[in-house]
Amino acid sequence: MTKQKGITVVSPLYGDRKITDRMVFSVLHQFVSKDNPYKINLVLVNDYIEKPDEYDYYLSDEFKQFYDPDFITITLIKNKEHKYQGESREIGFMAGKYDYFLLLDCDDMLAPNCCDRYLDIINKFYENEKGKLACVYGYLYGFDTNGYEQKIVGESIWVQSRCYSRKFIVKHGIHFPTGLHSKQGEDYPFIND
After folding, report:
1. What pLDDT score does 147 carry?
2. What would the pLDDT profile of 1-39 be if each residue is shown by its tens digit?
3. Does the global pTM surpass 0.90?
4. Which of 152, 123, 126 is nearest to 139 (CA)?
5. Chain centre to alpha carbon of residue 152
6. Coil, strand, or helix at residue 111?
């Protein structure tokens, strides 16, 4: 198995940029060690069809001053009709550059070492086990916009607590349900598949 050199972070977007900026910057400011450099592909799926250009700023030359484009690429996908959270996530991870991906709500943030920790675990597994890895749970912290801290240690039911292999998901036909637009619970069918 080859060492994983990058990770995709997927976020479906809906709402004003003042909400999504914190999430985007938490991805852009991920710790990247000089000894273990890796790349991040941030895939933003715009489901805010009432304002289809709301997030174009993230692709602007002006915005590129906030990150190193040698290590981070930003992809923006615009839904033409509401796909809601689950289906937008799936659109995002299928478009991602790297096999392993994280799912992140637009009003949440990643801890600064999140991507580094996941890739370290994945690469150590491949070095030691030479097997196939479907997903990884990590001892990481995420923060939502209400300021709650959630310890993600594997018992979390939310999809954000895991780093997934797209190859595994595709091979086993795992999908988010389409058209489900509840604020909570759209994760259950995906996790239970």
Report:
1. 43
2. 567 899 999 999 998 898 899 999 999 999 887 777 899
3. no
4. 152
5. 15
6. coil
Q: What is the DSSP letter of 65?
A: G
The type of residue at 88 is: S
Q: Which of 31, 48, 42 is nearest to 82 (CA)?
A: 48
Record the tokens describing residue 41, joined without a space: 């592909």
Burial label, 101 (beta-carbon count in 10 A; 0-12, 13-18, 19+):
buried
Report d(CA 153, CA 140) in Å as an integer. 7
| The two three-digit tokens of residue 67, written as one number | 């990150």
Strands 140-144 and 149-152: antiparallel
Q: How many residues does the chain have?
A: 193
Quick one: tokens of 144? 């939502």
The whole-angstrom separation of Cα 161 and Cα 157 is 8
Contact present, 85 and 12 (Cβ < 8 Å): yes
